[in-house]
TrEMBL record:
NCBIfam families found in the cross-reference section: PRK10628.1 (NF007914)
Entry similarity comment: Belongs to the DODA-type extradiol aromatic ring-opening dioxygenase family.
Statement: the UniProt record of this protein carries the keyword Transmembrane: no
EC number: 1.13.11.29
Keyword terms, alphabetized: Dioxygenase, Metal-binding, Oxidoreductase, Zinc
Protein name per its UniProtKB record: 4,5-DOPA dioxygenase extradiol
Chain's gene name: ygiD
Gene3D superfamilies: LigB-like
Molecular function GO terms recorded: stizolobate synthase activity
Organism per entry: Pontibacter rugosus
Domain of life: Bacteria
Cofactor(s) required, per the database record: Zn(2+)
UniProt-listed InterPro entries: Extradiol_dOase_DODA, Xdiol_dOase_suB
């Protein structure tokens, strides 16, 4: 799995040039896969956001849905659209988001890491943490999209620190996006309340507020050590895979970056769509 061999496709991007404007970095609360085909307040905001930020040369997604032993980056010419879910309408399974990859950029990005070896992967593709969001932002599917996996054997501090090694890509027009959910407890979803706007359990609302406050204050150490934030944090993050992408986003923050929040809503009691724009 993975190889150091590349085709000539996109070979002209062996070294992206630095831009005058620093590309922002995002954390997207992606929520249900149905957001990938629905025209709702969340997907509308993703579309609007794409028009407000500079057009990226490529998009690099750190998704909650690609966990691996070690770190990998997609390096194929055209990544497959992965339908990594079940029980949804056929319309969702029919979606094919045919954005190109960029093998040369994958190689360049892998070379930025000094603390770990990053494997070039030709087998994964784009999972729903990536394509359900990106297809709304860039529906023409002409901007290359890559994914970076999350090493499930490592802890929060590791992921936060690892993200910092990608900072130079922000200078080269690459949009780096963490995709997960800050509060994500599927076992406690109030399915009968999904149609009620902003219905949330007290602990979910409280933790969402705490997360935003700590992000605003730049208290990343507390966000890294989220398990020390009390029982509300443990209810909000029963497993860490949807939270880790936030740490990648925070690790990429520069000293002069502004912070804003969007899609700041609770869904089904125990999920938050709250998203962050840095820069």
């Amino acid at each position: 799995m993975g190889t150091k061999t590349f085709s000539a496709f996109n070979s002209f991007t062996n070294s992206l040039k630095e831009e005058e404007q620093l590309m922002p970095v995002l954390f997207i609360g992606h929520g249900s896969p149905m957001n990938g085909i629905e025209d709702n307040e969340f997907s509308q905001t993703w579309k609007k956001l794409a028009k407000e930020i500079p057009t990226p040369k490529a998009v690099l997604v750190v998704s909650a849905h690609w966990l691996s032993k070690g770190t990998r980056i997609t390096a194929m010419d055209f990544p497959n659209t992965i339908h990594d879910f079940g029980g949804f309408p056929q319309e969702l399974f029919d979606v094919q988001y045919k954005a190109p990859g960029n093998p040369a950029l994958a190689k360049e990005a892998a070379g930025l890491f000094t603390t770990t070896d990053v494997e070039l992967d030709h087998d994964w593709g784009l999972d729903h943490g990536a394509w359900t969001v990106v297809r709304h932002m860039y529906p023409d599917a002409v901007i290359p999209v890559l994914q970076l996996s999350i090493d499930y054997t490592q802890g929060p501090q590791y992921h936060y620190d690892l993200a910092k090694e990608l900072y130079s890509l922000r200078k080269k027009g690459v949009l780096i996006m963490g995709s997960g959910n800050m509060v994500h407890n599927l076992r406690m979803v109030a399915w009968n309340k999904l149609s009620e706007p902003e219905y949330g359990y007290d602990w979910a609302i409280q933790m969402n507020t705490t997360f935003k406050d700590l992000i605003r204050k730049g208290q990343h150490d507390k966000l890294i050590s989220y398990e020390s934030l009390g029982k509300e944090a443990l209810l909000s993050i029963p497993t860490p895979e949807h939270y880790w992408p936030l740490l990648y986003t925070l690790g990429l923050k520069g000293g002069k970056d502004d912070i804003s929040f969007f899609n700041d809503k609770v869904v089904g009691g125990s999920l938050t769509m709250t998203s962050v724009k840095i820069g």
